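User: Show me a protein chain along with its predicted structure.
Assistant: Here is one chain, sequence first, then structure tokens.
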Amino acid sequence: TYLRAELDSLFSMTQEEELGALSLGELRELAGRFSVARQKDRFVARSKAMSFMAPGMGEFMNKDYGSGAALLAADLAVVAGTLAGAYFLLPEDLRFQQLDYLNTPWAAIRGRWESHTFMDYLPSMALLAGGGLVKGILGRLSSTHAGKLARRNIEQGKITFEPDLLLLPDGGMMMGMGWRY
């Protein structure tokens, strides 16, 4: 991580120096370096998390619009294909043409669903599980790609950060409140 590298660099340079011997300007510079390193780490983590949840979003964040669009389209295709396939593998009397879900009493809908065995639902459930697995693999690939993109953009100077000396805890609202992404 960027923060660990910055800390290692600091400790290798100032092993013999006492903390009290540092001037306020030097402390401010160190705090700025740490804040930039922390922002870099958070940017990479956020890119990866966004791409894992919605493949392509981390790529968009890193201005790789072609890969982002391709991964987002692949994700939408996997989700749509999985849902459509699972629907058509349901027993025929549960489909929308046979059962009006908006105007039929709940007890009748429940009775119809309970009239089938587990084996009747197995093909649909297997397709849902397979689609979920494919979506997870796609999210993992996209997350890894977005993390590499973020690191490359940081190293090439395409993404820059300014020192922020007000280092708040994760989430930033103090008193234990906050948000994470």
